[in-house]
Amino acid sequence: xxxxxxxxxxxxxxxxxxxxxxxxxxxxxxxxxxxxxxxxxxxxxxxxxxxxxxxxxxxxxxxxxxxxxxxxxxxxxxxxxxxxxxxxxxxxxxxxxxxxxxxxxxxxxxxxxxxxxxxxxxxxxxxxxxxxxxxxxxxxxxxxxxxxxxxxxxxxxxxxxxxxxxxxxxxxxxxxxxxxxxxxxxxxxxxxxxxxxxxxxxxxxxxxxxxxxxxxxxxxxxxxxxxxxxxxxxxxxxxxxxxxxxxxxxxxxxxxxxxxxxxxxxxxxxxxxxxxxxxxxxxxxxxxxxxxxxx
Length: 295
What we know:
Layout: E1 14-29, E2 33-47, H1 58-72, E3 77-80, E4 86-91, E5 94-101, E6 106-113, E7 117-120, H2 127-138, E8 146-154, E9 161-167, E10 181-191, E11 194-195, H3 197-206, E12 210-214, E13 218-220, E14 223-224, E15 227-236, E16 239-246, E17 250-253, H4 259-273, E18 279-284, E19 290-294
Parallel strand pairs: 1-3, 3-7, 9-12, 12-17
Antiparallel strand pairs: 1-2, 2-8, 4-5, 5-6, 6-16, 9-10, 10-11, 10-18, 13-15, 14-15, 15-16, 18-19
């Protein structure tokens, strides 16, 4: 009979929290320009067990990660500081950013308080590079018993039509007032009581990679290299905000762009196009929240 091994087992302990929280923000892409995005954050911790028999208390994990993401990424404009497409200028507590994108020499330019910008140490922004930037700063906030930290971002996997949009809500008392933050959002539309994938896809294409601007916030309409631009500007509780962006990536409405007013706009515009139909719109702002409008 073979002798039973008495050597200790090398057990690796991992703690995970899937879909711990979600972050809504905008970021700069070298081809598509300004993109609204919504990520789900997933965390994995490796380490020894403490005196409680835990790698780390779930409450501690949630508190640290949620607070950091809410403060440093959520409702901000993320910019890749090592990209050749970017020019950054710091003016006291304000940052000015110029971003070249696309194949036709287009650009966007923004000036805002420093707190509205996430300066990501990367050349390109992807779920992986943004996650790595987060990890380098989050690791120091955990106990020494945590030997390794992994953070990944994933997208909502519910089927349906989605669109990426950026906007700013000047009247908002929180971080939604930042002029270039955004969301990846689903839209559900019913026509005469029946779900309409056709209308959902129509609006998703209309609002693909769009900036939703309020007409009253337009301060000028300059032209650069024969391309028309809008210059949006307003002063809110957090300070003055400005954004100059090509008109062809904007969609103008007469109201502010709260999700309630967005749902109302979808419903009214669709009703105008289909006057004999009963329209119901469920517009999402990121994940699991939004507004419903019926006509």
